[in-house]
Amino acid sequence: MRHLRRRGFVVAAAGALAALATTGEAAASARFSEGAGTAGEGGPMGRAAWGKRATREFRGMWVATVGNRDWPSVPGLSAAEQRAELLAHLDTAVERRLNAVMLQVRPTADALWPSPYEPWSQYLTGVQGRDPGWDPLGTAVREAHRRGLELHAWFNPYRVAAHADPSRLVPCHPARQHPHWIVPYGGRLYYNPGIPEVRAFVEEAVLDAVRRYDIDAVHFDDYFYPYPVAGQYFDDDAAWARYGTGYANRAAWRRANIDLLVRETSERIKGVNKHVRFGISPFGVWRNASTDPAGSRTTAGVQTYDDLHADTRAWVRRGWIDYVVPQVYWHMGFAAADYSTLVPWWSAVADGTGVDLYIGEALYKVGMAGQPSAWHDPAELSRHLTYASRYPQVGGHCFFSALEVGTDPLGAMTRVVEDHYPTRVRTAR
After folding, report:
1. Nearest-5° angle of CA 106, CA 42, CA 37?
2. Coil, strand, or helix at residue 81?
């Protein structure tokens, strides 16, 4: 992680996004046979009101769809096979006494629901834009709630493709309709966060799911501006020249672009449904203390503030998000970024803000070849939860990812459940 389909696919011009939101929603609503948000059982009006902070322990897992990491296991399965695999992941979450699932529904500027904005994901059928014959997000919401699980819809804001060839995108793809929106970088395609029309489009694509489904949260991962690639240049010169007036430097302008996305998305989600939460799972290091005295006592090679232009600390302190799940994907004792250094740092950041803090756990590293010896100890993750329990600001944990939650490498997940999850705990839904 750390993350094209459709009947009647329509792409709006940048200046017509609001009209597209209205007409697309109305047109698509008549096509849905399951999972759309309604005032009936399980719909938004049936949701128990809850405040900004959750009141019970959070136990989550990510279900990654990009590259078919977790689900579907391979592209091109039948609708029945895809559905069966998805339900199996939900059942595994229940068996592991978890209470929340982060399902990646927009992995690469595409969708796992019949969106009027973007094509069906190739990770479903193997062909971008091909209708899979069912509504995965609608089914996931309904079936998760039936099992007492929260369903957090996970969106990657700016990643367009895992390749750098726009001609490989379906012809009606927004990135082909607006080629000036995209930047090739590191062998991939990205939307340019510095273009206001891009930001508006991304927000509309996300809000479409909020309007139609009874999701519990909108969830962003750690990808904003892309992770640095040695010898590569993210060419946003034209956007910087046009929109960068008044900023001290390009880095400050880039951070302002991401700040706007986060703040506007937060405000617009609440404008649609005040009960839908907004959470972000950033890379675990905001800044090293050697760079900024307010940073953590780490020597990480990546700092979100400087490299991804994501001021994650500010989003928490300003209350723009409802929860934060830093990816503290390192073992206890790791010199460059120690788990036992970062948990207290994030606890101090979240303290008194009203923003819930959950810790992202690297279950995927357990037993993995090439990892340090700590990750070959089945008790390492359990020790993480024991350590984090010292900090009252930590409201729970989220495990990456569903594949390993099921396969249970070295029995580490079983150990976590036995040591820390003696019974199921419902969230405040």
Report:
1. 45
2. helix
